[in-house]
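Hi everyone,

Forwarding the result from last night's run.
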Amino acid sequence: MEVENFTLVREALMLTLLISAPILGIGLLVGLVISLLQAVTQVQEQTLAFVPKIVAMILVAVVLMGWMGTQMSAFAERMFGG
């Protein structure tokens, strides 16, 4: 029984990483691009980096919502279905 619990916890953590990786990756990529643009133009405005990052992450979350729901539903079925 304990091995099964460890397997479920490991699977839940891997699913969390899998679901959050695209959103965090886009946030990282947009932040890097904005930082490069700020360095090139010497504009050091904090909100300039924050707002595009949040917008991009929300857009990716909306686009991938169906896939994320499918992944979580499949995990829930495996976990509670027995």
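Residues 2-81 form one domain.

Cheers,
N.
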